[in-house]
Amino acid sequence: MDLQNLFDMSSLFLQQLVNGLTVGGVYALIAVGYTMVYGVIELINFAHGEIYMFGAFITFHLITVYKVPFFVAALVAVAACAVIGILLDIVAYRPLRNAPRLAALITAIGMSIFFQNLALIKWGAQIKSYPLEALPPFFSDVAVRIGDVQVTWLQVFILATTLLLMFALHTIIHRTKVGAAMRAIAQDKRAAALMGINVNRVISFTFALGSSLGAVAGILVGVFYNAIWPTMGYIAGIKAFAAAVLGGIGSVPGAMLGGVVLGVAEVFGAGYLSSQYRDGIAYAVMILVIVFKPSGLLGKAMIQKV
Amino acid sequence: MPDGQPMLKLENVHTYYGNIHALKGVSFELQEGQIGCLIGANGAGKSTTLMTISGLERCKEGTIEFLGKPIQRIAPDEIVRMGICQVPEGRRIFPRLTVRENLMLGAYIRKDKDGVQQDLDRVLGYFPRLAERLSQDGGTLSGGEQQMLAIGRALMSRPKLLLLDEPSLGLAPLVVETIFEIIAEIAKEKITVLLVEQNANAALQLAHYGWVLETGRIVLQDKARALLENPKVREAYLGEG
Ligand SMILES: Nc1ncnc2c1ncn2[C@@H]1O[C@H](COP(=O)(O)OP(=O)(O)OP(=O)(O)O)[C@@H](O)[C@H]1O
Ligand SMILES: [Mg+2]
Predict the structure, then answer these.
(1) Are residues B78 and B176 in the same domain?
(2) Å from CA of A99 to ligand 2 middle
């Protein structure tokens, strides 16, 4: 009887761990976008959550209106979001590069609201879901079952995609020329320009990269919960931002770690305390980090920037 | 290229920081293959002159010609591509990139892998201490080593014109000596050098030609040797009189 209890408990634990890692991986995908952009232009891009939302909606639009196959739609949406990210920077942020930081920050919040309303006009306030027949059928099949623990192929797909993209991102940042330029710009923009780096072009690349990953996250979440709505980027954005702060804003490995830790904490908090606490956990984590370790888990100690 | 055309020619250059009029009509010419030296007190506008040449500050008036081409409206990265590289004041190496990554960023504009490797070997020949520290973060180097890294990084772009802003600043005399020896070596490799220095004595001994900058204006210019003899210069910049 006791043994059975223990088994139930550990299988619950395992199930929640898998769920937490799935959610956390998605947070990490969004969080790296915040942290990379912060790294190169010291701006919290509050409109990043809306890029995530656009990823989900553009995919939805292509599937439902143009009957495009899911994976093709997803790829096109990711590319579109990369372009939206670049344009966002050029139109909204670049003119304010030398303006007071607060001006850019307020613009970022403005762009976030603008994008939400654009989506509201285009797709309406109703929660939408991807038509089941348009999704790959294997998604809902169970991939692994251990006792009561179930992992669907969709979860495997999300975890694998996240891992793969994180690996790719790490490779780009540490093994390519443009990655070295990104890191150089994050450390000293003027010195980077003196090396012949076209700073604006590398910043555009950073937006494209962060926006693509954010879009992938939006699509994965849209499929996972089978629900998308125009303000979905708001709460996800705040959580991913909390993850980036937890990891140390500006640190890419920090954002990855922060996302996973936050996702796991959230699922366990909801499971063992109450599901009502779920969203509060991100705020609690963010406040604790800001109070006790403002530089985050992996961040460099830094002066106040916002 | 016609004979006698200067490598670098500034004409009536005015640069502002907001309302601050930092350069008030700076004009000078630097011949190819020479070492030119810009001296002047703190705040005279030496760094501003170099930053304006590099395109990071923009002149409101005047022209800057490099090998006969006006460059005062050209983007900073394009200026590097044309062959002007700067070692900025305070070294400005990338502290959280390794020594190797710092050097390779110097070669950012280049696509000729073999040439880059050759230049890397050459730079490490100049500065053997960097060779032992290639995988160390730039920020962990000593001040002198960071200056070597900054110069090495600039050389990696294979510049035609090297701008050096106070390379001796804050360094021990022995290290300064090494740095100046290397600058002389660099100049022998047909790289034209524009040197900004407070250490006027050492700099003028090295240079062919010199200019004295005072609150945004060139007030004196001559052959370096003549400037060394000039009583006004000796009094104001060589700590005599
Ligand atoms: N970013 C800036 N904003 C406003 N004023 C500046 C800025 N940089 C320099 N100045 C001003 O421009 C003038 C020239 O400065 P600059 O740095 O070119 O002098 P410098 O000759 O290099 O001095 P130092 O020997 O101290 O390096 C100074 O009056 C300085 O205060
Ligand atoms: Mg200076």
Answers:
(1) yes
(2) 24
In this predicted complex, what is the ipTM? 0.94
Paired tokens of B117: 């490797």
Residues of A with CB under 8 A from a CB of B: 177, 180-181, 183-184, 187-188, 190-199, 300
**Structural domain for B107, as ranges:** 92-157
C-alpha to C-alpha distance for A195 and B139, rounded to whole angstroms? 18
Residue (of A187, A216, A284) closest to A71 by Cα position? A216
CB contact under 8 A, B81 and A188: no
Q: Which of B47, B165, B166 to mutate to test the pocket of ligand 1 (most atoms within 8 A of CB)?
A: B47
CA dist list (Å): B66 to A150, B5, B6, B63, B165 = 69, 10, 8, 10, 19
What residues pair up with A128 in beta bridges, in sequence order? Answer: A228
Q: What is the CATH number of domain A3-292?
A: 1.10.3470
Contact B80 A184 (CB under 8 A): no
Alpha helices in A124-198 (DSSP H): 153-175, 177-187, 189-194
3-class secondary structure, A229: coil
Burial call B75-107: b when 16+ CB within 10 Å, e when fewer:
ebbebbbbbbbbbbbebbbbbebbbbbbbbbbb
Per-residue confidence of chain B (241 residues) as pLDDT tens digits? Answer: 445 789 999 999 999 999 999 999 999 999 999 999 999 999 999 999 999 999 999 999 999 999 999 999 999 999 999 999 999 999 999 999 999 999 999 999 999 999 999 999 999 999 999 999 999 999 999 999 999 999 999 999 999 999 999 999 989 999 999 999 999 999 999 999 999 998 888 899 999 999 999 999 999 999 999 999 998 888 887 776 5
3-state class of B221 per DSSP? strand
- Kindly state whether residues B16 and B67 are assigned to the same domain: yes
Q: Are residues B182 and B72 in the same domain?
A: yes
Output the six-digit token pair for A265. Answer: 């904490």
Question: What stretches of chain A show up as alpha helix (H) in DSSP?
Answer: 2-41, 48-66, 70-88, 101-123, 153-175, 177-187, 189-194, 199-225, 232-247, 252-272, 278-292
As a whole number of angstroms, the distance between CA A197 and CA A178 comes to 9
pLDDT, one tens digit per residue, over A61-102 is 999 999 999 999 999 999 999 999 999 999 999 999 989 999
CATH code, domain carrying B193: 3.40.50.300
Number of domains within chain B: 2
Q: Which residues surround ligand 2, an ion (CB under 5 A)?
A: B 46-47, 89
What are the residue boundaries of the structural domains of chain A, listed by start? 3-292
Is residue B53 within 8 angstroms of chain A, CB to CB? no
